[in-house]
Amino acid sequence: MNGQDDITVEGYQLPAEIVAAIGRGAWKLPAGSLAVAALFTEQPTPAARLYEPGLMAAETAAWRAAPPEQQKLYGGPGAQAEGYLTVDPQSAVLIGDLGHDLPIALDYSVSAGRPRIVYLASRAPGWIQVAADAADFLRRLGSSIPRADLS
Predict the structure, then answer these.
(1) Cα–Cα distance between 85 and 110 in angstroms, integer?
(2) 31 contacts: CB under 8 Å, gap ≥ 6
(3) Where are the domains of the chain?
(4) Which neighbouring-strand residues pair with 127?
(5) What is the Cα–Cα distance from 82 to 125, expressed in whole angstroms?
(6) DSSP H helical ranges for the chain
(7) Pairing with 42, which of 13, 33, 102, 149 sits 20 to 30 Å away (CA)?
């Protein structure tokens, strides 16, 4: 991790909108929100949360270190995920979860500057895109995060 305006997790720079939300203390799933239920295909558990950068790094490092067989079970390379996305742990950062084994990730494989937001549903053999990018994710959650100064 670096300075307040530039947070890097496992080699990937977090989107400015997420950094701004963290800085304002607004980086959290709104409890009991209809927006959360509408965004994901299932209800979050009471333990659902968005991670702070240190936990993002720890969870992502553990996911990347998992053996290939375990990564397949979590919608990684080689997963039988017809109709769903597969996500390579080496090009993603875990940013939260809806509960045990329901991770939420930034998938940088589509764009290093605008990663999409995906999550692994409990009954899915692969990942589901929930937002095109961080700004879309926060907007859909109902967070009013001001645009970050990217200069």
Answers:
(1) 12
(2) none
(3) 8-141
(4) 85, 120
(5) 8
(6) 16-24, 34-39, 53-65, 68-73, 134-141
(7) 13
Task: Determine the length of the chain.
Answer: 151
Contact 71, 89 (CB under 8 A): yes
> Which residues, in sequence order, are bridge partners of residue 129?
118
Residue 16: both structure tokens together? 């400015």
To which H or E segment does residue 130 belong?
strand 127-131
Backbone φ and ψ of 29, nearest 5°: -80, 125
DSSP 5-25: T--EETTEEPPHHHHHHHHHT
Both tokens of residue 61? 């490092």
Specify the residue for token string 């990937």. 12
**Hunting for tokens 């927006």 — which residue is that?**
35
Sort 87 into a burial class: Cβ within 10 Å, 0-12 / 13-18 / 19+: buried
Q: From first to last of the 151 residues of the chain, give the pLDDT tens digit.
A: 444 578 999 999 999 999 999 999 999 998 777 888 889 988 888 899 999 999 999 999 999 999 998 898 888 888 888 889 999 999 999 999 999 989 999 999 999 999 999 999 888 889 999 999 999 999 998 864 444 433 3
